[in-house]
Amino acid sequence: MSHVRYMDKTREYYRSLGYETPYRWAHFDEIPFTRLAKPLSECRVAVVTTSEVVLRDAPGSPDDLAREVYSLPADVPVERLASRKESYDRYATTLDDVDSYLPLTRLRELATKGRVGSLAPRFHVVYSEYSQRKTVEVDAAEILRRCREDGADAALLVAV
Amino acid sequence: MCHQTVGLVTRHLEANGLPTVVFGCARDIVEHCGVPRFVFSDFPLGNPCGKPFEPAMQRAIVEIGLDLLERAVAPGTTVVAPYEWDPDTSWKDKVFTAAQPFLDEAATARWLRRKESHREASRP
Q: N or C: which end of chain B has fewer CB within 10 A?
């Protein structure tokens, strides 16, 4: 069976709820492309996630009122993390295993084996926004700044 | 929206000299946006890096992404992870249907508030 057509599905779904104007999904004809500058075994790898994970035991976890990019230490055991994400297929699956959408343990294992050089010291959380402009001009710019600050050579981005 | 968000961020990073790879489960949204490298898992939204509590599958999917980082020679390269969620594919038919509202009522209300506030802010 072929994959789910989410753009068609959501158009129909929201039309059925009375929203006639379809959302204009981002589309570009040109796609940027940058090659690795050195072997992956020497690269420091950053991770970006939309999973809205927070530390379970930290009362000071960032709240979502401002919906700003935030970062957490990449060496935190995943058992200490929990996702606050609401938009996933809650009928078919769960977000109970962090490594299924934020593969920190898997990446640490691969770094130990030398498949990647290292994991950047923190990973970055970005909120999903209705406004593409906010995502590009505010959030993406901030993530780039943090990746550069951490000396990242490549980035893995995971969509929940 | 998550897949579009990741698409927009990955494009920005890549355009500024940082090689990237995206993991996701909504193939149409990611490919419509246009990203340099994409590992597609044909799974329900939520677990693009492998089924929960299946570390061997998760490791294999992450490694597919790392291979893609090294080997892709052109932008817009998609690799399909060789795993099936379940022989029963009925979850695909139920996504975004009245029988299975995607968000619960409270989450829907929050989403609509954000959408309206964006529209207010965008008005000239």
A: C
Please tell me the pTM assigned to this model: 0.93
Spell out which residues of chain B touch residue A147, defining contact as CB-CB under 8 Å.
13, 18
Q: What is the pLDDT of residues B82-117, one digit of tens each?
A: 999 999 999 999 888 878 877 877 777 777 777 777
Residues 6+ apart with CB under 8 A from B49: A99, A100, A101, A102, A103, A106, A158, B23, B41, B58, B61, B62
Domain residue extents for chain B: 2-122
What residues of chain A score a pLDDT lower than 70?
Answer: 1, 59-65
A130 chain-B contacts, CB cut-off 8 A: 1, 111, 114-115, 118
Mean pLDDT value across residues B52-60: 98
Given an 8 Å threshold on Cβ–Cβ distance, is B96 in contact with A10?
yes
Which pair of structure tokens corresponds to residue A74?
Answer: 């990449």
Which residues of A are less than 8 Å from B94 in CB distance? 91-92
Give B99→chain A minimum CA distance, Å.
11
Q: What percent of chain B has pLDDT over 90?
A: 73
3-state secondary structure of A125: strand
Phi then psi dihedrals of residue B53, to 5 deg: 60, 30
